[in-house]
Amino acid sequence: MDVQLLKSLSEARGISGQESAVRQVVLNAIDGHGEQIRIDPLGSITAVKPGTGQRRLRVMIAAHMDEIGFMVAGVDGDGLVRFTNVGGVDDRILPGLRVKIGTNGISGVVVWTPIHLNRDQAVVKMSSLRIDIGASSKDDANGKVKLGDMIVFDTRFAELGDQMVRGKAFDDRAGCSLLIDVLRGGPYPVDVLAAFTVQEEIGLRGAQVAAQFFQPDVAFVLEGTTANDIPNPLREVDDQSALNPTCHVLGGPVISIMDRSLIVDPRMFNFLKATATKHEIPYQLKTQLGGGTDGGSIHTANSGVMTGVISLPCRYIHSPAALLHRADYDHALRLIQAVLQDIDDAVVRR
Length: 350
Description:
Blueprint: H1 3-11, H2 20-30, E1 35-39, E2 45-49, E3 58-64, E4 69-75, E5 81-86, E6 98-101, E7 106-111, E8 130-132, H3 138-142, E9 150-153, E10 158-160, E11 164-167, H4 170-184, E12 191-197, H5 205-214, E13 218-226, H6 240-243, E14 254-256, H7 266-278, E15 284-286, H8 295-298, E16 306-314, E17 322-325, H9 326-342, H10 345-348
Parallel strand pairs: 3-12, 3-13, 13-16, 14-15
Antiparallel strand pairs: 1-2, 2-12, 4-5, 4-9, 6-7, 6-9, 7-8, 10-11, 11-17, 14-16
Helix pairs in contact: 1-4, 4-9
């Protein structure tokens, strides 16, 4: 893991549709490590790393640059900022949340009724919350923020001990870091068609356009997924998520069977498992069906593309701070690089 690279990716601010800061980090990181580097009309980055084989499969690998967050929706008369979500956000994490607004990173705090005055213990809906940026009036606030400004979690990347890292937007900046490492590595016998996509969190849009452009033979998605492996005393004893968590930190890369956007072809699924076993790479299977990935739009692009998903187990994704273990990252990188060395026509041929 290039910790400084992941730090730069994590701390860059880029909700869906406003990924320019992340895009610049990626462009700097892949300079000299790919050919035909371009930015498509939606804002995704595509790049090609030519293979060394004589019959070269065209293998697309996608990771999305955008993160969940919020957008300025208006300003009240008292200078408090109204906001709406961009992507899937849990209302329970919002009260007291520190945020950054706009390209200038205006600091703010999500405000709510103090617990001393709140006798109703129900979760406060986002529409009833505001962001305090320290403005004294509506005019004062309008001089600092404007409609449509992005709002992201105010989180600093950190190393926790020797093996864990913490940061925002590991879904999917950790996947972007993996894809950058793939481009920096090699050589590979196949053509690697790299796509750093936009607008995944609001509908898998960038990946669809990139897949139509590349017309790959086969595709893989690098993602961050939920490791809900922490005991929770509030769960009922028969709660299936407690008995069967999506995945575990230190369990290795997560191979998807299916999710809400994609059913992985059994040939692809078996190939990924066999490759991990052959190279003695620990892995685990994603058995919960929540969420989706860029694979949902890639596998139906053009005349259809066989698509596999390799995910990093991250605790607390879609929150102000996710946790990732270096060993899981390293094993995921080994797996996708082994896949690129081992895949051939037999995997994708009917």
